[in-house]
Every structure is written in structure tokens, then in C-alpha cells.
Amino acid sequence: MELLESPAKAHEAASVASPQLRWPGVCVQCSDVDSLHKSLTTLLLLSCCLCDNHSLQLHLFESSLKVTGVDFLKSQNTRQHHTDGYNIQSLVVRRGQPFQVLVSLSRELRAADKLTLRFGIGESPMKNRGSLLSLKPEREDFNGWKISVVERKGKECLLSVTSSPNAPVGKYNLHVKTGSNIYKPENGVIYLLFNPWCEDDVVYMANDAEKEEYVLNDTGTIYVGSAYSIYDRPWNFGQFEEFVLDACMYLLDKSKLSLAQRRDPAHVSRAMSALVNANDDSGVLLGNWSGNYVGGTSPMDWIGSVTILQKYYKTKKPVCYGQCWVFSGVLTTVMRCLGVPCRCVSTFDSAHDTEENLRVDVYLNDKGEKLNSLSFDSVWNFHVWNDAWMKRTDIPDGFSGWQAIDSTPQEQSEGRFQCGPCPVKAVREGDVYLPYDAKFVYAEVNADRVYWVVKKVNGKDKYFKVGTETQAIGKNISTKAVGQNRRVDITQEYKYPEGSKEERMSMQRAYSFLRPSGLTPRSGYASTLQRIGANTEPLVPNEPVTKTGLHLEITNTEPLHPGNPLEMAITVKTSAPGNWTIDLIGSCQLQYYTGNVQANLGTLKETITLEGPSEMQIPLKIAPDAYMKTLSSVEDEVLILVTAIAEVQETNDKLTKETSMRFEYPPITVQMPETASLYNDFNCAFIFKNKLNVTLENCKLLVEGLGIFKMTTFELGDIMPGRIIKSEIVCTPTRLGEKKIVAKLISNQIKGISTEKGIFITE
Ligand SMILES: [Ca+2]
Ligand SMILES: [Ca+2]
Ligand SMILES: [Ca+2]
């Protein structure tokens, strides 16, 4: 374009249409309208002082359309997008669904005007990288976004924006361009999330009640304990709380996922499984299973994810400390916050198979006590991971739906502590070749367990196989029911019923995908199998059938209260006719939920005789002195592990059985009204009576009520037997609907007393 030399000439050029210009202002050389307008306007501003030609000046100013404001219509948009819960100033919307913005202009919008909405994601967004979208009304962008004019009313223009249902999730900056003017609204950031309400989004979930639970519910329950005694830990996910969404956005940026990967919940969930643990990447939570939690918060003491994510976002440093249910709770928060349906999944007697051979080898000494040191494999009393809901576009059809993801740092996958997404259906069918980490997840829920007794023969350790259990691993896979406060068993989603033909066929199929022996196992550890020369084992073991019909049962005969003797029994049964002499060995140990043994409490060794189909109960009693010291010296909640080995002298039949049991505690009672109204204070009292016959030392009560009060800790000191304590808090509800209050009591002796109570907040 030819530049005009002086204001006077500019005036002349514009008014008489010089040879260089075709009114209303298209440059004959480059056909650019915008820059010409700008230079003309600038020049004429000066020129008007000189020539006093008001009519021309007015006309040109009118031509230059400017944006004076943008209203993101937050309350209307967020209600429609199910994002009104987020405690954040900016607009939060879900992809693939229209939202509206009201643009205020300097004058009426005309057909000839050029209005463009620009959405930029990431640092220095660029069109050719797909990080800058430039949208004009009624024209679909090749990225699948479109805008349209809904209504023009005077100087206001209502626009509808529809993002693509596979747009990258994250924070977008909106600029509005009119001609050469660019308007940058204050707080013009829009958070774009996955959309389970949108049929074209791969996270689409048809059922409304399920979306309500798996996306919108900000409280929930995590199941822990043992297969024998499952209990719930209330957990506040708090995905809508202040800074939680920003923490998730920070994690997305930190993940270094490409824009294309940010479109796909499979990539995003894998990245989040890595980032929720601190390993490799200074992620959210540092795991600690040592029993020593100095310098941080004991994993037992969290009652929700909010404090953790807020602290992480503020400091950008790993928060200390987590164990599996904490990792899982935080991962649920992150996934729900990003819009991916997600749930916590607890598996009891869950295997941690270090060499990807789908079996767990357990070594016992000749007293029947478990030896920790011989195997890197372990069986956790429970392990908590997550299911995330999505359609997998990266693998063959048939594996969409729930995908297991796990942020507890157990084993590396592709060089990082990350796990999943692994299709739950692939686990059930034994299709363990599918990405990601299906062999590991398969073993977690369905490994076979093989018992070995280690005996010294001529001064050397020899290994004697005493039993194979094909039904021991992966029990009572549990999650919270949709819309209800109860546990639901989802074991059948992960595997066929134990004992069924299909379950063994799935195992057979899974075995067929194992690496040939001799290749490097996943963890880099040497295979214990090779060490004991067990390569002659049948490929897929079956549950042994004994000639005597030998059967073992382990139970407690009295409630297991800390401070009381632990009264348990081993029942030996035979079902075949004949006289049977049975050597029974039993042991009782205290262990962490990871299967790590903390103390040996006692053993029994007896020879009994049974005639035909009959049974005998052998008591196993442990005095309080034997375990109370261990109980108060460890900072974890411990479980009681009883192992029994029976051997029939006449037939050489051998059988092993183990059961983990949990101590039983007195409850916390919460007293408060069932309903309350917004911003009206009410009182909430927490009452605890120490019904045990031991003093609970150094008691702390932790309480939190999302939308009611922030997390609070009461220091209660020592609580003597029989004493009742009552702590009160004044509550001010700030949000409507069903809310929950969660309370937890911890002491030197007991870590696991918790409760929750719901309240309905009305207007
Ligand atoms: Ca990590
Ligand atoms: Ca193994
Ligand atoms: Ca099995």
C-alpha cells in the first residue's frame, strides 16, 4: 500500500478517492482493508484539526467497529454446562456444547463488518500449530469449532460458540477482533473441559445418575480394610473447590502433552496417573510406606483431596505423604475436575506382581510365618486405584468403557511411574497385550498364589511347594454405588467368577501373551521362579483337589478390640471317609495393608485326628501385651494376619490358608440438623466415647465439610477408657444441595476411626 504523505493529502485522498484508493478504502496494491482504515483514521484524526471536515471524520470513525466489552454470561453458561459448581471467576465450559457470549460494540454490527473470535491455548498460540483458532460467524473452522450470531440488538451482539467435541482441554484466551482492532477482555480466560454430556465426546456417558456420581459428586467413599472386613473411608474429592481446577490445569501444562494428546482422555489420564505421584516429575503426592511420617502429614490423616491439591498448587512442590487410597482419591478429583467420569476402585487381596508372570510366590518358614525377604511380589490387603470412563480410539473396538488407571507408584511403565488406562474388559478376557499395563492390572485382580515352605536341607535353603491358590487374589472389587451411600461389588467387571471355566480360560489367554522366559522382566528383578527351578510347573495351575476334602477356615471368635486378647480360631474340615491325622501350623502376625509384616505375635503347632466328614476348631489366642506396643509404635493402621498350613499324614495332602482381619473400634457420632439454610449458622457436634480398655494417646479429630466449613483439627490429648469427648464447630453453609461432613479420629493406638454425615442445604 502506498503511504500517504501528509494529513492534508490523506484528507484529500479519502474525500476525492485518489488513484491509489477505491472508496471505502481498499488498497489497490495489496487489497488490504484493515491496515488502510487504520492509517486513514490515524491520519484523519490529525487532519480534522487542519481541515475541520467533520462529516468525513464522523463517517470514518463509524466505519471502525470496536468492541467495548464482552460478557461471558457465566451463570447461564455454567448452568447449561454443569460447571456452576466450580469456585472460580473465569468461565468454565465443556467441549462440543454451545455457550454464548455477549459482545458490546461501539456501534451496530453491519453485514460488511468483520468480526472474529480468537481462541488461543498455551503460550504464544499460532494458527499453523492449531493453538490459535480464528472464528468467523457461520463458518466452521477446520478444527471443528464454529460461532454464530444469535441476536443483534442495538450495539450488542449475542454470539454462540461451539467448540469441537475433540478440542484440546485446557485454558483458552479469548480475543475479539473487529477489523484491525483487537479487544482483550479482562479475565478473558475460558476453561474448556471434557464433556460426558456430549454424544460426540469420547467421554460421553449416557446415564444421568452416573454422570451425577462420577463427574459431579464432590464427596464419596473409599473402601479399605481386608476382604474379611471391609470398611469405608469417607473422602472429600472437592473438585470444585478454590484452586483445584487451576491445580489440574497446572498439571496439564506440566505433563507436556502435545495439543493433539490433550484431545484424548487416554493420554490425559495416563499423564495424570504419572503426575499425581511425585516420582519422576515432582508431581502432587510423595508416597511413604515406611511408618515414619515426620516432616509431613501421615497418609492416615487426610480426609480429602482439597488440602493436598491446594497446597501443591501454592508451593508447586510434592505434598507429603500418600498411600494408595490418597493417590486414588486425588486422581479421582483431578479426573472429575477435568470432566472425565472417574471412580475409586478398591481390590482386596490385590497382587503386586513385579515380574509380569501373573503369579505371586509366597515363602513361609517352617513355623508358617511369612518371609518378606524372598519375593519382590506382594499381596496388599487392599489396593485402591481408579476407573476412568472413555471410548478408546487407539485400540481395536470392544474395549471402551471403564479403564483402570493407577497413580500409586508401584512399578514403572515405559520408564515412568504411571499406570493405565487399561481397559477393564481386556482384564476380564485376558487380553493383556493391550495398552496400557494390562499385565500388571491383570495380576492385581487375578494372579495365582503359590505357597512355598523354605526348609534347611544340608545347610541349604530348599523350597517345597505347599499349595496353589487360584481364587485368592482379587476379591470384592468395590466402589461406591451410584447415588447411594453403599458399597457395590464390581468384581464381575474385572473377571469371570472364580471357579468358573471362563476364569481359567482368561488366565490361559493372559499367559499366552507373557514374554518368553529369559527376557527382562518388567521390574528388572530376577525372577524368583528361575531361582527355585520351577519351570516344570503346569502353565496354568488349577486349584488342588485333595483326597481328604481338606478345608481350612480362619475366624475370630470375639470382636477384635485393641487392648483385649485377640481370640481367633482355625477350623479344619475333612469331607472324605477315613481316619485322618493332620499336622496343623498356625501363625499370627501384624502387617501393613501392603502385606509387609511388622510383628510376629504367636504361633501354634498341633496334630489332630479327624474321622470322615468332620471338623475341629483350634483356638489361637494372642494376649494384649504381645501386640499393643507394636500397635502404638507404628503410624499406620495394621491388620491381623493369620496363616494356617495343614498337612494330612496319610495322604500327604497339603493346604494353606490366610486371612487378614481388622481391629474393631468404637464409633464417632455426629450431631447436627438434617437440613439447614444458606448462610444460616448451625452447630455440629462430634462425640466419641472410648469404649476400649486402653487409653488412646495423642488424639486428634479432623473434620471437613465442603461448602460448609474448611478442614479443622481438634487436638484432644489422651482419652482414657470410658471417657466421652465432644467437639463442636459452628457451620455456615455457602452452597446449596446435599453436603457432607467428614470426621476422623486418630491417636497413637488407632488410626482408622472415621465417619460422615449428610445435610441438605436449602435457600
Ligand atoms: Ca510422577
Ligand atoms: Ca510374580
Ligand atoms: Ca483367580
Automatic annotation (TrEMBL):
Active site: C324, H383, D406
UniProt keyword Metal-binding present: yes
Keyword tags: Calcium, Metal-binding
Gene3D superfamilies reported for this sequence: Immunoglobulins (2.60.40.10), Transglutaminase-like (3.90.260.10)
Positions of Ca(2+) binding: N446, D448, E498, E503
Key word Cytoplasm present: no
Cofactor dependence: Ca(2+)
Domain Transglutaminase-like intervals: 316-409
UniProt protein name: Protein-glutamine gamma-glutamyltransferase 4
Gene for this chain: TGM4
